[in-house]
Amino acid sequence: MRNKLFLPLLMLPLAFVLVSGACWLIASLNRHHMHNFKFTLSAFAAEKKIKYWAAPMDPTYIRNEPGKSPMGMDLIPVYEDDAQSGSTISIDPVTIQNMGVRTKRVIRGDIAQRVRTVGLIDYEESKQYSVNARISGWVEKLYINKTGQQVKKGDPLLAIYSPDLVAAQQELILAKNNAAALTDSHFAEISTGAQRLLEASRQRLKLWNISDKQITQIETSGKIQQRMTLYSPYTGIISLKKVHEGVYIKSGMMLFEISDLSRIWVYADIYESDLPFVKEGQQAQVFLPYAGEKPRPATVSYLYPYVETKTRTVKARLELVNADQSLRPDMYVNVEIQTQPQHSVLQIPAEAVLHSGDLKRVFVDLGEGKFSPRVVETGIRGDNDMIEIKSGVALGDQVVVSAQFMFDSESRLREAINKMLEPENETPVKGDSIKDLFAEPMTQQQIDDLF
């Protein structure tokens, strides 16, 4: 029994010795690794030089030595290798992928700008006619009594009773009978005079818009017509009617206005910014506002030499055929004018350009995750959302077309930090300059130079 109790008591010191040795060995190894870690960290710090210290939550808060940020956080070091030069920024590939950065190559090709605007349909001025009364009388019958009514050349307009027309018919009948009676006269002068009188009577009726057919009918029948019919000399629609049945009209009074709608004009508003690209003779398309309508070809026939004061636009006159007369005056239409294309120019997607006041900037992919901002000069914008680049990038450069707004803010931040760290050198004023100025009495020339 005693042997069984003595054996465990003998093993306790041995176990204590083993545990103490193990603890000493672990502590020695930890001290060795910590020493190596501190050595490695010191070597790493020696290799990389700290440029400045910045706040973790505010990159614009920078100091030349360690300390606390306004939020109470420890400043973190920024090494020279990590700080970007100028406004160029560097982003790791994972962040680039997460941001959805896309780039497009600068290409060379043709580009054309399409001017889009609105227009107003109007009559063709050269196809608007006015029908006036050439003789006084009473309108006894009105054949055309509706505004907008379609008429053709030769259609009856109205029937008029005029004492002057009745007298002219009587003269015509008498001149006709007189000429017939004197045809076989032995005196040639008398026969010729009768013929001249007959021709003068006919001409008088013609000047009052009496047709040749009506004059022949009067001569053949030998009867006077109390009412004479006036016929339309033009084809078109009645755009204005100023006469009614029973009204007394005077010579020179306007009766109807007839407009031909087979061709119409469109007055398009051209803004001053688009004016340099629009020229006479360019092709255009006219679209009606309702759906399903096909575009109609038109031509820019004239640019008016003045600016509308209210709209600040220049009117461009477009001419187009209106055979089906579906285009009506005073209708609004959409207009697209195809300008002259520019050949073999550098171009990039328009979405790549950032507008900042008078400057336009793009970001160029330099490779290895580096992006540099470039100030560019742009030209016209094409139909395919491409924009002409006159300077700033070269053929084959890769420009950023998405997420460039974040690039721009980061680039401006780095540029501001670099300006803060490297202020411009100013030539200090020497402290003894004023003292030297009054060391000796001033001459009159020195006084003049001061003022």
* Radius of gyration (Å): 49 Å
How much helical structure, as a percent, in the residues?
Answer: 25-40%
- Averaged pLDDT: 79
Number of strands: 26
> How would you describe the oligomerization state of the chains in this entry?
single chain
Strand content: 25-35%
Uncertain residue segments: 32-46, 428-439
User: Cα distance, first to last residue?
Assistant: 122 Å
What does the largest sheet look like?
A: 7 strands, antiparallel
Number of helices: 8
What structural category do the secondary elements indicate?
alpha+beta
Shape: rod-shaped
Throw out a few tags for this protein:
single chain; 451 residues; alpha+beta; seven-stranded antiparallel beta sheet; 33% strand; rod-shaped
Would you summarize the structure shown here?
The protein has 451 residues and is of the alpha+beta class. The chain has helices at 2-47, 93-99, 163-181, 188-207, 212-221, 404-421, 433-437, 444-450, and strands at residues 50-54, 62-63, 76-79, 89-90, 103-105, 107-111, 114-123, 128-132, 137-142, 150-151, 156-161, 228-231, 236-241, 248-249, 254-259, 263-271, 283-287, 296-303, 313-321, 332-338, 342-349, 354-356, 359-367, 370-381, 386-391, 398-400. The chain is rod-shaped.
